[in-house]
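Good morning C.,

I know you're traveling, so I'll keep this short. The sequence:
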Amino acid sequence: MAAPPPQRTRTHPVRRRGITLGALLAVLGPGLLAGLSDDDPAGITTYSLLGADHGYQLLWVLLLSTVALVMFHWLAARMGVVTGQGLVGLVRQRYGVRVGALVLAALVVANIGTTCAEFAGVAAGMELFGVSRNVSVPTAAILVSLLVLRGSFHRIEHFLLLLSTVFLAYIVSGVLAKPDWGAAVEGLLIPTMPTNAAAIAIVTATVGTTLAPWGLSFIQSYAVDKKLRPEDLKLEAVDVVTGAVLTGIIGFFVVVACAATLHRDGRTITDAADAAVALQPLAGQAAATLFAVGLVGAALLGASVLPLSTAYSVCEYAGSQAALDDSFSDATTFYVTFGVVTALGAGVVLIPSAPLVTILVFTQVINAVLLIPLLCAMIGIGRDGALMGRFRLSAGAVRLYGAVTALIIACVAALGIVSVTG
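The tokens, ready to paste straight into the viewer:
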């Protein structure tokens, strides 16, 4: 086994004493951004379909997915803070170079495909406002590139956190749709499950889009780049829970907005842009506009975070510098990877007749397949006393994480069986 990549130098750590508002604000970032980035165009599309096709019935799936998101994002953040390494670097160290390379390759392919989906979301959302994708997509690519290439860590973080406030549009849109709140609460708390293939597919997609592999990689790498320390973990737990819960809340309002309008009137859609258009005659122009604004904002946030997650992972495997405060000459691999992923994602969307839906489906399949071994690897690393020390998972925690992973495996297996048997 090759020597593990060096841990990142942890200079100028953020120093805090006690649990105060200022201390909490200093820690906030990894959990919020990783969680809210899961509400990207692929996620919004999945939630829109969940509500349009099944009404309020499958809201409980979103609740369970949010619980799983809290658990595994917290584990990823804790692993990053304790070891000072990102997820791919730890996988390489514990399981070897070949396993690390396979995980990295799958992540890169899936991340590039999902980045295409983010820019497709920009294109679809802006076209609702009459702006051509030939203008909106290059502009978005230049914007996110300048953000990373020219900004400091804290400026980039503040911009992304500010951008994430656009998700409030979905909450307002959901309220304007005047949903049946009683039915929504019932669907959230009382599990019922149709036995058809479409229902199994949307349940699996909901789990996969909420607990995305790239999100796990991003939150761990970002916690390292933020130079958080073990004494920050109590505050970071607040950050993780807040980000995951907000992700679930936003997904909830997307589902109820579509359930109260599209499902009620028997309307079908294929993506989130369709949902925004369809909402106009059913819930009013304001709800439709807010839904479209949320789609564009979500796409921009995802288009910023996906290339970052990929750049972190590539550098972790290679053992090279990967920090937003580093200069281009000090972190060439990091910035070049970011640029290449951004350019590929935007370029594919600009190709006439590019099979964007096929790309999105293909990458989500890779995400679903990759999620299972990645969760197993995380549990193995989390219970490794040599790596985690006193922060390793207890026997009870291992069983709990194992049970959640088993449920996710069951979802993916059921989808696979249904797909094979037709």
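Safe travels,
E.
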